[in-house]
Amino acid sequence: MNGDGVILVTGGSGSLGHRVVARLRSAGRKVRVLSRQQHEPSSGVEYVVGDLEKNVGIDAAVVGANVMVHCAGVGKIKQDTAQAQNLVRAAEHAGVRHIVSISVVGAERIPVKSAVDRSMFAYFASQRAKECVIEASGLPWTNLRATQFHDGFILAMVRAMSKLPLVVLPAETRFQPIDADEVAGALVDLALGAPAGQVADVAGPKIYESEYLLRSYLEVIGKQRAIVHMKLPGAAAAAIRAGANLAPGRAVGTRSWEDFLADLAPRPSARAVARQ
């Protein structure tokens, strides 16, 4: 559908973006990455230095691109809105035929209105703001919402909590983490296809209580922590407790949190194995 033109990936050096780039290259596509840092070109991949939020370097990055995969984002409403607006303007001028974006499950269901909501859950609002900019652009678009990544938010959350002597967990919170590489595969399939608008969510194979995620990680790293639960205030927290961040009907991921932890667990050294 999209021919053999260049595919531009924003955030192409990030956790998700670099996986998207690798899969596009495996599919034989030419890739251009917009990055704030200078990179040496590699086989089939060129880099353009720019800043989406500051509207620097974007026009050069979009020249000759017929598809964009928008993986960049900082999780803040103002910044992510500005990034999307600047990207859309450049895409319109360059005649881009398809914008593919990644968002988060619950972006349209989790209300982020009060200062309390924004202090804890601005990410959902930032992703919805980005969605709205792209939807209103008039350009052909596809948007994919995914649950949190094993090696993204979930790992960062449990790592940070593991460093505290006493962990205060938000009460009644659950997550359905998914493997980032599986999400990258879904994005690439969409980028190589026709614009489809809002597509079905993708989520991991299991839903977990937040306490289980933390305790299972602590077991891997050999630590114990006291845990207490606290009910968070605000409409966004209430929506999370109700499961607005989950997609039980779209448990299409195959790699579980347990699989991820098994790979994360330290391996015995050759010397230790020899002593056994």
Structure description:
- The protein has helices spanning 17-26, 58-62, 77-94, 115-135, 150-162, 180-191, 210-221, 235-241, 257-264, 270-275; strands spanning 6-10, 31-35, 45-49, 65-70, 98-104, 141-146, 166-170, 174-175, 197-198, 208-209, 226-230.
- It is of the alpha/beta class.
- It has a single domain, classed as Rossmann fold (3-Layer(aba) Sandwich), CATH 3.40.50.720.
- The strands form 3 sheets. A 7-stranded parallel sheet has the order 3-2-1-4-5-6-9, with helices on both faces. Strands 7-11 form a two-stranded parallel ribbon. Strands 8-10 form a two-stranded antiparallel sheet.
- Helix 1 crosses helix 6 (180-191) and helix 5 crosses helix 7 (210-221).
- Residues 269-274 have low confidence and may be disordered.
Could you outline the blueprint of secondary structure elements for this entry?
Blueprint: E1 6-10, H1 17-26, E2 31-35, E3 45-49, H2 58-62, E4 65-70, H3 77-94, E5 98-104, H4 115-135, E6 141-146, H5 150-162, E7 166-170, E8 174-175, H6 180-191, E9 197-198, E10 208-209, H7 210-221, E11 226-230, H8 235-241, H9 257-264, H10 270-275
